[in-house]
Structures are given as structure tokens and as C-alpha cells.
Design a protein that fits this description.
The chain is an alpha/beta fold. It is built from 20 helices and ten strands. The strands form two sheets. Strands 3-2-1-4-7-6-8 form a seven-stranded mixed β-sheet. A three-stranded mixed β-sheet has the order 5-10-9. The longest helix has about 35 residues. The termini are far apart.
Length: about 525
Amino acid sequence: MRRRAAEYRRPGRRDYWYWIWGLVGLFLIAGLVLFVAHHRQDEDPEFKHLQERHGSFEEEAPRHINFTEELTSATSFARQLSEQMTLAKAYVVIAKEHNNLHLAWQLSSKIRSCQLLLSRAAMKGEPITLEEAEPILTSISSLIYKAQDLHYDIATTLVTMKSHIQALEDRANAATVQSVVFGQLVAESLPKNLHCLSTKLMTDWLTKSAIQQRADDSRNLPRLVDNNLYHFCIFSDNLLGTSAVVNSTVSNAEHPKQLVFHIVTTRISYGPMQAWFQSNDFKGAAMEVQLVEEFSWLNASYAPIVKQLSNSDTRTYYFGGSQDSSAEPKLRNPKFVSLLNHLRFYIPDIYPHLEKVVLLDDDVVVQKEITSLFSLELHGNVNGAVETCLEAFHRYYKYLNFSNPLVSSKFDPQACGWAFGMNVFDLIAWRKANVTARYHFWQEQNADQTLWKLGTLPPGLLTFYGLTEPLDRRWHVLGLGYDTTIDSRLIETAAVIHFNGNMKPWLKLGIGRYKPLWESSIFS
């Protein structure tokens, strides 16, 4: 049969097959694409990790450890490394002493490896694994066994380490003493700005005749001996400290013109003191500045302390550069050889016409009206003071040598101590009890310093024993020169705060928390 020409054939069957093959090709291409994509997902770890993270929200971030707890854990590799490293350090010392420098070098190298691994673990916050710790533990253990095989046994180790511990303790004790000595030197020094102020005031005293005239006129004021007024004594060569005491007392007084301040100082400080107190008004309070060198009656024939302080051995001890490490550093303070510090036992001699006075140290600040101290009932006692035996170390036995029968036979070792710094003295009762003679007796008995070391509180405890009236603690709060933890409420309610200690508020090492209390009271 004859075929038709192409243009006359039916196109339907041919188009059908074209569509079939086209669809088959598309399916093959789509299948190939899906196969390749799935294969790449299985091989790409980053994609797989992202898929896992997005597919599971319960997976947690890596756990960070407390490395201190890790070091104390009995099962941790960090603790094993630390213990082996400590033992290796001991053998390094022993190896060096036996001149085995090669072993010492090997141990030191492994110690550095331990330190590096521990440091990395601490920074990462991750525990040390077995794979990380095993090589170092193995090598350092073998070196320790090697050291033991060389007869560096436990007995040798103990003896060596004991000697080194003793040496370290000696060094630590020496450093502690040195620190105290340096602190004492700072406490005794005069800041440059205060030195400049004293120099300027001395110039004013020498060049301004008006100041000297006012000082001469103030010597004979009737108010100085008027027992109807309130008399305060300050024995000091510290200009700004004395000014802070005077100004804070005047600022809190209801009637400042009824206050009289009796200041005794040294020849070096006399001019600046006069210039300062004669140039300022202090709200009308009366001021008297005296020179301790003018007390001609205070001589070696009358006062045992004068003879003792003029002793050449005593002067050499404090000013000759002695470095005796057995002496307690705080007892080397030159204030103990200052006669000003002992004038408190001669108040009736200095002021024969007065009946009652309040003694204030130059490192106190008055915060309340304190003239009511003069009306306190002392019940026949001479000294009104705040007791300090709330702490056990302020009992009598802490200040005095009770192994001496002269002390143990007359005093109770558990008797409560008290503080100088703010004291009320009934001078009538003082003269009646002849308290100064009691003081002289004890000073003579302590000529060889066997009853107490230097200072004024121990002889004060002996002199005023049975003659002291305890005052309310709020009258006098102590410790602002060394204790940083005093209750703020106690300070706020205190009538007088005392910066006793080395950290005086006019020094850079003063306690910052308390400094504003002093600084605000310097100037009127």
C-alpha cells in the first residue's frame, strides 16, 4: 500500500509520544536534583549541625564549670595535676640542694606544663579530660618516682620542707614588723601642707606685732581662772588637730563665750599656735596658749618622768636609729618621750586655781554639746572616763606586768580599763587624794620599765585605780584611727569621736570613711 505524503499524514499519534517523553525527562531531572541535594545534606556537617539545632530545641550549650570546685573534687584531673605539681615543687627544692640540676630542670618543665593546662581549663571553664591529663600525669609521676629512687625519701622531704616553712615564717614575720614600722613612720610624719602652714604662721608671729600684743593681753584674762566657766585642756604640738578640737567644741556649744581653752605646746609650735588662735575669733571663746618649757617647776627633782625622759639610753632608743627587732614597733613612737604626753598628770599644778576641767586629746572631734560633762556626778572620784573593757584585751592584765608582786598584790588583773582622750577631772578631789604623788610613786617603781612599757595609759590605770567614774559609752567613741567597721549609728550618737591609732585623719593613710568628720571641723 502506498504511503501518504508527509503533509497528508495525521499528526495526533506523533504529538502524543512527544508529551510522554517530555514528562519522563522532567521526572528524571527532578529525581536527579533531589538525589544530589539529599546526598549533600548527609555529607555537610555544618548543615547537619544546623538542622539538628533547629530540629531539636532541647539541646543545651556546653556546660561551664566552677574551677575552684573542680580543684577540690576528689575525682577531677585538675586536683590530681595540682597535687602532683605541689609534690614536684618540693622535689625541685630538694634536687637543687643535692645539686641535681638536671632533675630539677625536668621537674620544673613538667610543672610549667601543669600550670599551662590548668590555666587553659580555668579560662575555658571546662573540665580537664583524660586525654589532656594522662601524658602530663604519667611523665611527672615518673620523675617523682625517679626522685624517690635517688633517696629523696619522705623523711628527707619533711625535714627540708620544715626548714623552708620556718624560713618563710621568719620572712613573713619580718615583713609584718617592717610594715608596722613603716606605718609608724608615716603616722609620725608631718604632711608637707601642714609644715608649710606652720612656717607661714611662724612668719606672721615674728613679723606682726599686733598678734604678739593680743597674746600678751590674753595672759591675764579673768576668764582663765573663772570656775563658773567651762575649762578645756589640750596638750599638743599639732596645730590643725588642736584647731579641729577647739572649733568642733565651739560649734556645738550653746554658749561659746562661756568656754575657755587652755593649750600647752612646745617651743617649735608656740609661734604658729599663737598666730593661729589669736587671729581667729572662735565665737568669743577664751584662748590661752602656754609654753611647756616655761614650767620651771617641772624638773627632774620634782617629776621622775623628766629624769627618765632625759636619760641618754632612752633618747638613743628613740632617736639614735636603733633597729632592735625585739621591741614592739608601736612602743618606739617618739610621742612617748614627749613631755606633753605626760602633762595630764600635772593638771592641778598647771592650773592651781581651777576646780574642774575636761581633757581633750588633739585627735578627737566634738559632735555634741559637752558642757554638761561639768555637771556629771563623779561620786567623789577624780577621773570620769569611758571604759573600754567591752573587748577582752582592755583589761588591766593586758597593760601591766602581773608577774611583779608589787602589781599583783594591789590590783585586779581583770579590772576594766578605760581611755584617755576625753576625761573629766575633779581637781578638788585630785588634790585631796594627792593623785600626782601616786603617779610619781609608780613612775619611780618603773624606772627599769619592768611594770609596763612606755606610755601614759598604764601609769594612768595605776594612778587612778579606784578613783575613776565610768561614763556612758556615747560620750566617747574610740577607734576611728584603726577600725574601719565601727557602727555608723554609734558614731552619729557619740558626743566625742576619737581618731586613736596610726590612721590619723590628716594623713593620707587616714580611713576615708571617717575623714570628712574631721575635715569639716578644722575651720570656723
